[in-house]
Write a structure and sequence with these properties.
The protein is mostly helical and 469 residues long. It contains 20 helices and 2 strands. It is 49% helix and 1% strand. Strand 1 and strand 2 form a beta hairpin. The longest helix has 35 residues.
């Protein structure tokens, strides 16, 4: 009887408690879906106290940066901030300001006991400690050596026809700056920068985060065309626009969400992980017997971006150490993963014919006209761009000529014709007509008397070319 009475009293007590708490419990249940769930990165493996300090401090100071790293393969493999950023005390790119973080005292890791030299710049040399093959391949590519290339062929730099600010905010964002220090810190005129040809203070060239964005460094991101489209776009090298117009791009748009972007490095396979290639699929990723490479110079049989289309080993500014026939064979092998021999062979036959037509019909006559005008002293070769026909000649190869050739190479007919050869015809006729009139009348070209912001340095960077002689 006592037992029965006990349970009755207990039940009554619980019911009263439930009624009393009812409104509060209901409010909690209603609000629960809108409350963010705390995500915590747990340090479950051995790390040095200095590495723990980096993680715990950045977790509070830079939560976005920390979240990127925490979601990366690096974090899963116990690779910490220090594995990439730690430097030697005497290194030129050591951050002096970072030392002040160990003097703060307002958080448990702001103490001298955790002090360690770090650099904000992580270079291919740093990455080579774990990725030696990728770093070696990249070091031999045109990407890594673009600072040398542009200083040999780009009249904007050679003749100082744009300002330092225009270079820093435009050209060098993609091509890369020559990093320098000022008052013990990175010079803001050269930093921040993640250009593919950045010249680093440790002597290495390039930035892996150009394609694998820090601090997650995802292989998935580098496989998508948007990674390349950061730089390869616009009137002079519209590869991203050309790709998106092509059948490859159309399939990517329709089915890209179904691609296996996160396949392990070296295993991304056409027909298994993706239906149609992206930029990386053709130029970098492995396919069949063709190995993955971080050298974008490989698999190219032509220098389509050059004024006169030449073989890569004949590109004077940066001759490739490859044979164009072997590289054409590698590219064909990539194509054959999805296409038949006849399709592939005929595509490259057409491309070679397009190259010949551009070279012989458009570029060579225009180049001869320009040389004749210089020889007759109707124009002055230096500086470039201050005479209208120089701009017309430049855009003939640098804009329309590139679009015609690249549009054909990547199977984008609108770019090959309307943005390419059609525009070549218009530019060519205007250029040649004006040139002939000048030769017949002896009339000299008009020079822009107030060419704006032609104030850039003409000195080639000694970090690339050595001391001036």
């Amino acid at each position: 009887m006592r037992t029965r009475l006990y349970w009755m009293l207990l039940a009554a007590t619980l019911v009263c408690a439930a009624f009393a708490a009812g409104p509060l419990m209901g409010q909690e249940e209603e609000a629960a879906p809108n409350l963010p769930k705390a995500k915590e990165f747990r340090i479950g493996r051995s790390m040095s106290k200095e590495a723990v300090a980096c993680i715990e401090c950045h977790k509070k100071e830079h939560p976005g940066l920390f979240a990127d790293w925490a979601g990366s393969r690096h974090a899963s493999a116990n690779i910490t901030c220090l594995d990439c950023h730690q430097a030697q005390e005497h290194d030129a790119d050591v951050s002096r300001a970072h030392y002040k973080q160990y003097e703060r005292g307002d958080q448990p890791y702001g103490k001298s006991a955790y002090r360690v030299p770090v650099s904000g710049v992580v270079t291919p040399k740093d990455c080579s400690r774990c990725h030696p093959d990728e770093s070696r391949e990249y070091a031999g590519s045109k990407h890594a050596n673009t600072a040398e290339i542009i200083w040999k062929i780009d009249k904007w730099l050679i003749d100082g026809m744009n300002s330092e600010l225009e270079r820093q905010s435009g050209c060098l964002v993609c091509h890369g700056t020559v990093l320098k220090t000022k008052n013990g810190e990175l010079d803001p005129s050269t930093w921040p920068n993640a250009g593919v040809g950045r010249v680093n203070l440790d002597g290495s060239k390039g930035s892996c985060s150009s394609c694998h964005t820090r601090h997650r460094f995802p292989v998935m991101e580098a496989r998508k065309p948007e990674a390349c489209g950061q730089c390869h776009l616009g009137p002079d090298h519209p590869q991203i626009e050309i790709f998106m117009e092509s059948k490859h791009g159309d399939i990517y748009t329709a089915h890209g969400d179904d691609y296996n972007w996160n396949a392990a490095p070296g295993t991304w396979t056409p027909g298994v992980d993706y239906r149609a290639p992206t930029c990386a699929g053709c130029h970098l990723s492995g396919s069949g017997s063709v190995a993955t490479s971080h050298d974008v110079t490989l698999r190219l049989a032509w220098e389509l971006q050059a004024p006169l289309t030449v073989r890569p080993q004949d590109f004077e500014a940066f001759p490739a150490k490859t044979n164009h026939e072997e590289e054409r064979g590698r590219m064909k092998a990539v194509c054959l993963a999805c296409h038949g021999n006849k399709w592939v062979d005929d595509h490259f036959t057409k491309l070679d014919s397009v190259v010949a037509e551009y070279n012989d019909v458009y570029f060579k006559p225009a180049k001869k006209m320009l040389d004749d005008l210089y020889a007759k002293e109707l124009m002055e070769p230096r500086p470039f761009f201050d005479e209208e026909l120089e701009v017309e000649y430049y855009e003939l190869w640098h804009h329309e000529g590139r679009r015609a050739r690249m549009g054909s190479a990547m199977m984008a007919p609108d770019y090959a014709w309307w943005h390419g050869f059609y525009e070549c015809k218009k530019r060519y006729n205007l250029f040649m007509g004006e040139g002939r009139d000048m030769l017949q009348t002896g009339r000299k070209a008009h020079k822009a008397p107030d060419f704006p912001s032609a104030t850039g340095s003409k000195e080639k960077p000694p970090e690339v070319f050595g001391p001036a002689r």
